[in-house]
Automatic annotation (TrEMBL):
InterPro entries: Uracil-DNA_glycosylase-like, Uracil-DNA_glycosylase-like_sf. It comes from Hansschlegelia beijingensis. Pfam families: UDG. This is Uracil-DNA glycosylase-like domain-containing protein. Residues 112-196 form the Uracil-DNA glycosylase-like domain. Gene3D superfamilies: Uracil-DNA glycosylase-like domain (3.40.470.10).
């Protein structure tokens, strides 16, 4: 789809100081020469899967993290959950882009525990679609800058135009405040990090009508 290709090409062209673009750059420590290409393809398949599945919900968090999206090219998704994409977007198969063992991220683990319970297609995105890191420390996370937020605004609107969701859910207050500045209405749930896991699971369960499954979510029981 031409709109998907334009989106990915534009995203791949961004360069910001102290921010890793997983769609055009290869990490000298954890990547191979094909890693950026694999991440572009992962995003392409995720976007096409969302369109083919007629996803009507998008979850938006703040930035890509160094244990998750920096490695996979996918918001709120670590390498341990790449296979789970096929559960919400049937037929979508994604590849691990890095070398070495599979790396998991705590936030992604909680996010996907809930996603697999909701049992409906949900597209995942970030306010700033790259991985912002501290100067001279590529394997750290920082909040995006005002300039980076302006870049993110373009891609938020582009993603919304592409997916056409009926429902936008912000993961955390930072994301909700940014979308409010962008003029985008959304629902907010607490981010699962920094002690927010229980609130996140309870709030998403209420939003998506799976309160009866809260016990299984808290005890890590797999969906039946």
């Amino acid at each position: 789809m031409k709109a998907v290709e334009r989106f990915i090409n534009k995203l791949s062209s961004i360069q910001c100081p102290n921010a890793f673009n997983p769609y055009s750059a290869n990490c000298v420590i954890h990547d191979s020469s094909e890693s950026a290409q694999i991440r572009r393809e992962n995003l392409r398949r995720a976007l096409n899967g969302a369109l083919e599945s007629k996803a009507r919900t998008i979850w938006i968090a703040r930035d890509l993290g160094y244990l998750g999206g920096r490695r996979t090219g996918l918001a709120l998704t670590d390498e341990a959950h790449l296979r789970d994409y096929g559960a919400i977007f049937p037929g979508v198969q994604l590849r691990k882009a890095t070398v070495g063992p599979v790396v998991s991220e705590r936030t992604a683990t909680v996010i996907w525990r809930v996603l697999l319970r909701i049992n409906q297609p949900v597209f995942l995105w970030n306010v700033f679609p790259l991985h912002p890191h501290e100067e001279n420390n590529h394997f750290s996370n920082r909040s995006h800058s005002k300039e980076e937020r302006n870049i993110g605004e373009y891609f938020i609107h582009a993603a919304l135009d592409l997916i056409q969701p009926e429902r936008v859910v912000c993961i955390g207050g930072d994301a909700e405040r940014c979308l409010s500045r962008f003029g985008v209405s959304s629902e907010k749930v607490r981010h699962p990090s920094y002690g927010g896991q229980a609130d996140f699971m309870r709030q998403t369960a209420e939003l998506f009508g799976i309160v009866d499954q809260l016990g299984d979510l808290f005890t890590h029981q797999p969906p039946s």
